[in-house]
Design brief:
- By secondary structure, this protein is of the alpha/beta class.
- It is 35% helix and 22% strand.
- It has a 9-stranded mixed sheet with strand order 1-9-8-7-6-5-2-3-4, sandwiched between helices.
- Helix 6 links the parallel strand 6 and strand 7.
- Helix 2 runs parallel beside helix 7.
- The longest helix has 12 residues.
- The radius of gyration is 15 Å and the shape is globular.
Length: 189
């Protein structure tokens, strides 16, 4: 009974000219950033000054900056840091730097479902949750395949939340298999 989307059903035009900021360069952050870059999108990593992953970002030839600067300059902000670190980081570095009509993207529903992150009314809040780890997401993408993803819209300020989620899921390779329309609650529980 769920709604399914596949590559051929989805246009990425809605995100083609958007700047995508990836916050965090761990397992999911690195895989999603590289897949987006290889799909031709404008990606920048937001990272702490003392992060151990900066050398990986340099080796992968992706640009990076402070979390604050990346949030300020991005249209889509993918928050791909551990759930336990996200609420504090969101309130201190992300929320104060958000632009009106930005899209905040999560790959896990936990912090939104349990209301641990308070976001403004004037942003889209969406989820693209690949059903597997970052290494698998990256490997399948490189093999011209993908892993399925759950997509959801929690707050649709611009009215484009679902189209952005679908386009992002295609850009990281998940729609090559399929994307399932879900909710933050369903993904978390």
């Amino acid at each position: 009974n769920s709604t399914l989307f596949f590559n051929d059903d989805i246009s990425t035009d809605i995100i083609k000219n958007k700047k995508i900021g990836i916050i965090g360069y761990g397992n999911q952050g690195r895989a999603q950033a590289l897949n987006l870059k290889d799909s031709g999108f404008d990606v920048k990593i937001g990272i702490r000054d003392n992060s151990k992953t900066i050398q990986n970002i340099i080796d992968d030839r992706i640009s990076y900056d402070s979390i604050e600067n990346v949030v300020k300059s991005s249209d889509i902000i993918s928050i791909l840091i551990p759930d336990n670190k996200a609420p504090q980081l969101f309130s201190s570095k992300i929320n104060p730097n958000l632009n009106k009509k930005s899209t905040i993207l999560f790959s896990h529903g936990y912090n939104i479902h349990y209301k641990l992150i308070n976001y403004p009314k004037w942003v889209d809040v969406i989820m693209v949750a690949p059903s597997g780890g970052g290494a698998m997401l990256r490997n399948e993408y490189k093999n011209n395949y993908g892993i399925p993803a759950l997509i959801a819209v929690e707050q649709n300020y611009t009215g484009c939340g679902l189209d952005i989620a679908k386009a992002y899921s295609k850009a990281i390779g998940s729609a090559r298999v399929c994307c399932f329309l879900s909710t933050f609650k369903e993904e978390t529980e």
